[in-house]
Structures are given as structure tokens and as C-alpha cells.
TrEMBL record:
InterPro entries: Glutathione-S-Trfase_C_sf, Glutathione_S-Trfase_N, Thioredoxin-like_sf. One of its GO terms (biological process) is L-phenylalanine catabolic process. This is Glutathione S-transferase. The keyword Ligase does not apply. It comes from Arboricoccus pini. Residues 1-82 form the GST N-terminal domain. It comes from the Bacteria. Keywords: Transferase.
Amino acid sequence: MKLHTSVTSPFGRKVKVVAIELGLFDRLELLQEQLTPVQANERVNAANPLGKIPVLVTDEGQAIYDSVVIAEYLDDMAGGHRLFPAAGAERYAALTLQALGDGIMDAAIGVRYELSLRPEQYRWQPWIDGLMAKVTRALATAAAVERQPLPLDIGKITLGCALAFLEFRFPELTWRQDHPSLASFMDELAERPSFAKTKPA
Ligand SMILES: N[C@@H](CCC(=O)N[C@@H](CS)C(=O)NCC(=O)O)C(=O)O
């Protein structure tokens, strides 16, 4: 299987962590991509018309996106319900935590695009503030519940990738001091080989 991804994409990292945790990483051929909303990548566009990574292309040539769907596809390949609880409150808590982590990454990437891609004269501070407020609220919600990395699930993996992305791209944020329990959660996750091996450079 081919995985279109990049070293710094937090969504790509989520999929790589999932593959490692499920013992499927060796089955992936990683295709490193460069792209932004204003820098088209035709190889990615051919696999995903939305022009986003990660995209998984199966050995049969089927393109699977986005990271939410790829993660569940890999989980199914590994026998099912390894990282996705099967049913009930536990399943929807894990899926909702995944959505929360994805939302943090979406908002943070939005800010990054705004600051690095949009010409300065077109930048709009209330837009940036609104996105960062989403991150702040989501972190408070994530911190409201005491979290242990184990047993691992898709929600915890996604939250870990989101926290690590904030640390990587927004080192000035004070979430570690504001939410020490999230900091220890992330530090414990970071020791797992799946996280250590996929650290953004
Ligand atoms: N919902 C998607 C989000 C993926 C995403 O935003 N990827 C970024 C890189 S981290 C991207 O491809 N950006 C290019 C663009 O938005 O055009 C997922 O879960 O995979």
C-alpha cells in the first residue's frame, strides 16, 4: 500500500502511528509529498481530489482518505476493533476524542497557513484569534478528563498527535502549564515507539 504523506503532517502522523501500533507499518510505502492549499500537488490531486494528505492507495489501487477513514481501514485490516472500540459509549467517546484532536489540528493548520501563506496585507487577526480560541477551548475540554495512554485508542492517538503538533509549530503556547495532566499524557505517549519513530523533524 502507498501512503501519500509528509514528515510534518499531523494527520499523516496519526495514520503512521496507527499503522505501527497495528503492526502494519512495514506494509506501507511512504510517498513524501509537499503541498499547501496554494501549491497544488498533482500526484496527490490524482489520488484525492481534495488535494490533501494523507491518502492511502491500496494494493488494488483504491484511494482511501481522509485520516479518519484510513485509520479505520487499517484497524479492519488488523482484525477490527483494535483501536476503534466496537460499540456503545466507549466507541463514541473514542470517535469524539478523535474529532476533537482533528479539530485542534485543523484550526492550528489554518492559523499556520494564515501566517505563512496569506500575504500580510490580507491577514485578518480576528480570524486567527477565532481559530486559536477553538484550540484553547478544545484543550480545556480534553483536559477535563484524566487521561492515561493505555489502553490506546484512536481518540488518544489523535489527541497525542494534536498536542505534539502544537508543541512543534506553536512552542509559545502555554498549554503545558495550563493543563499539566495533558502534558504528562503526551509525554507518556511520546515514549511509545510509534510516537518516537514518527516525530516531526
Ligand atoms: N481531514 C483531513 C485533513 C488533512 C489535512 O488537512 N492535511 C493537510 C496537511 S497536514 C493538507 O493536506 N493540506 C493541504 C490543503 O489543505 O490543501 C484528514 O483527516 O486527513
